[in-house]
Amino acid sequence: MTGLRRFLEAPPPTAPPAERCEMCGVDLAAEHGHVVTVENRALLCACRPCYLLFTREGAGQGRYRAVPDRVVRAPEFAITDGQWDALQIPVGMAFFFRNSELGRVAAFYPSPAGATESLLPMDTWTDILAANPGLPEPADDVEALLLRKPRGEPVECFLVPIDVCYDLVGRVRMYWKGFDGGTEAHREIDGVFRRLRERAR
Questions:
Q1: Within 10 Å of residue 88's Cβ, how many Cβ atoms?
Q2: Per-residue pLDDT tens over the stretch 34-84
Q3: Please, are residues 35 and 42 in contact by the beta-carbon 8 Å criterion?
Q4: Sign of the dihedral defined by the CA atoms of residues 59, 65, 69, 70, in that order
Q5: Angle at alpha carbon of residue 162, lines to 195 and 23, rounded to 5°
Q6: What string of H, E and C letters represents the secondary structure of 18-83?
Q7: Residue 193: is it exposed, middle or buried by C-beta count within 10 angstroms (0-12/13-18/19+)?
Q8: Nearest 5°: phi and psi at 75?
Q9: Which residues, 6+ apart, have CB-to-CB distance to 136 below 8 Å?
């Protein structure tokens, strides 16, 4: 009977496996940096030493770039409803970054299917940038301009690390329910933007 008891009792809880640096394999702290592989835009979790290797321009023959941590709010950002509509973004959020491999700005929006690319009309985006001359300029591949347009409210604009955008995409994908997303998804989205306001300079 003693031998059978071990099959009847619930096994002791086990801790989830530690997250590891995707470059050298060491265990990572909960808060850690990220490195972008420029060619395919993959985001790698990195320990501090590996992260620091790619903070210099041209390190790793330009194949990898460390994601910086600056967040800048652009409170004077202006965009008309017509310009927003011309961007062909079907939801109230989008992020824009310059893809150095393609040599152009790419636009994505979070969706239940993941990050969805918008076919960005370049003349419209150029007009928006021209109307906002004080806008901070994102570093290629690793920073983005993140826009949010709540219904009936002005657009919020932040310069953010690209990993913030993919965190937002992951939350939308995980929590979105039904046509309008549901309460839980909107709570997660609001939380992302609340933390950005707290971090921003």
A1: 14
A2: 999 998 889 999 999 999 999 988 888 889 999 999 999 999 998 888 888
A3: no
A4: positive
A5: 115
A6: CCECCCCCCECCCCCEEEEECCCCEEEEECHHHHHHCCCCCHHHHCEEECCCCCEECCCCCCCHHH
A7: middle
A8: -65, -20
A9: 72, 74, 159
In this structure, are residues 192 and 168 in contact, taking their beta carbons and an 8 Å threshold? Answer: yes
Predicted confidence (pLDDT) per residue in 134-163, tens digit: 899 999 999 999 999 887 788 899 999 999
Band of residue 16 on the pLDDT scale cut at 50, 70, 90: low
Tell me the CB-side half-sphere exposure of residue 99, using CA atoms within 13 A.
15
The model's confidence at residue 7, banded by pLDDT at 50, 70 and 90, is: very low
| Pair of tokens at residue 9 | 């009792």
Per DSSP, what are the bridge partners of residue 184?
A: none
Give the highest mean pLDDT range of 4-8, 9-13, 18-22: 18-22
Residue type (1 letter), 39: E
**159 membership: H or E segment, kind and range:** strand 156-161
Percent of the chain with pLDDT over 70: 91
Instruction: Give the whole-angstrom CA distance, residue 113 versus residue 91.
Output: 13
The number of helix segments (H) and strand segments (E) in the chain equals 6, 9
